[in-house]
EXS domain-containing protein
Amino acid sequence: MTEIRFDQSDTPLGLAQKEKVSAEFFEAVEVQLQKVNLFFNEKISAANRQLADITRNCDDFDLMTKKDVKHLKEAICEFYLFVQKLKTFQELNFEAFRKINKKHDKIMNKSTGNDFMKDNIDNSRFNLRSLTLNIRYLEPWTTLEGGDSKQAMNKLRVPPITDVVHGKTNEFLFILGVLVGISLVFLLAIAFIVNVENSGIELEENLPTIILLFRPTLLIAIFIIFFSMNMYGWANAGVNSVLIFELNPRDRLSAVQMACIGFGFLALWLVFLFIYLLLSSKLIFLSLSPYVNYIPISLDLILILFAFTPAKGTGLWSTQLFFWKLILREVKAGFIPVAFVDFWFADQLNSLGQVFLDFQQTICLIATKDIPMNFVPNYEDNNDPALLNSTSIAEIGVCGESTFAEIFRFFFWILPAYIRFAQCIRRAIDSQKRRGHHFQNAAKYSTSFLKVAMSYALQYSGKAPAAFGFWIITNVVASVFTLVWDLRMDWGLLHLEKKQILRDELIYGHGETNWIYFLAIIQDILFRFAWIAKYFIGINTSSGLGQVWTSLFAVIELIRRFVWNFFRLENEHLNNCGEFRAVREISLVVVNESEIAKLEEIMDEEKDRLLEFHRRPAIKNTNRFRNTVQKEK
């Protein structure tokens, strides 16, 4: 914002400058008032059309099927939310005009700002003091809810984002505390059992298999915990993730509830690991000990069952439905239009790439019977044939040497990047104005294919100099490409044409707290080039130490994505506010997916028309504009 300085004395020169600045001030206010009125007129017209549709459909209530009634209820709920947002829009803008005019009168030592409020703002179109829309549709809504007006209103109300975070979560905070306590107890128990002398746990020999089998579920638990922290941060900062992700604002998990799920998985993971180590030691002997490797596999199955077993009647049900639809849309990537939540989730899958590789490795080991399901020694019979015929744990490296196994691994390696690549191509096809932008983004994800191909070439060439050179070039290009895209496109930073690093609008920090953004930039640079450290360490995935380093770099990638999520949603939130790209309106007319691209094109043309309207010169003479309004009155 530009600071205006002028002579505030009562000299003739000072008075002239005051009049000039005051005139420019009211011209700017009038321009903003025109924008607010235009936006409000469009939205109030849309509200009237929606209300007419709802009323017309309520007249045919007796002829409706259950599906039609459900759709009508959703439309009324969203209409109520729409009206409440419109009221908030009125209140915020009226308060903004009031405060800025009050500030003008204080600086100028005049009452012209107060006069402007009475003549223009108080009688403005957007400042309608009685929005009767919310009353007129309560009657059909009450009818749909069996005539109980109190119950009907309770279902219509939407809790604010901050209320979901701070209020009515005491029971979940208690559960979260219990889960964190359980996690700490079993973490100490695991540390104890590993350090007990003569426990019989050959950790160095067994470590590769232990990490391989337990790592994917651990990474998923850490990801969920990080995501719950993202949700909490977004809500506290005012980033409307509910609108951006197009979630149901009345039926969704809070940040605390999501943290309970994450720490619940973490506690379960530690319990299973403790049982695994206990059965692998000489401290206890059970008849089930030969099947100890079923324990981590059972943990994988529990995770899958939790994700895909319907939990109807619980608060988890709506999240499950949303997750299933999202997974289905990722499977159909490239064949359907892409929403923000689709490519955001695909980006999360790219950071969970190690999980895909570990699950592939586990499936391959089970299919090829290379994983010893009975590796625990039978201390009563050292000649156990099952033990003699089983594969040594220390020998387990990359599963499978056949061509099919390598293709299978290659597929899992590039799957997240392919989903994102296909989405970029689809967005380029659907969007004419930003086609080049989406093709560039697709090129960015295609570098992942080259990185995987060069990794295979480096491995099978015995680290030949030529293959090593191509591997270095591919990784450097991919890292620079993705880094610049993170900072410039995803976060909206690095405005070199304006010679500034940060945006004009910041949510997480202003002034002295801007260091948060610079720290995030440094973090992204370091973590994007973490592969250099991985190379110089010389990770050998078949060794225990190599698996530890691989796990560490996988967690580093999750931390990078955790930070990335904050600034990506911030940038999307600001773009939504500036371009109205996300709305929550349910039409009673079914719209086919094939029509979405055409609708977006129409919306783009409408946005260009509005921008052209806003570029028109404002009224130059404030007094003449005030007199015109008074004559019309």
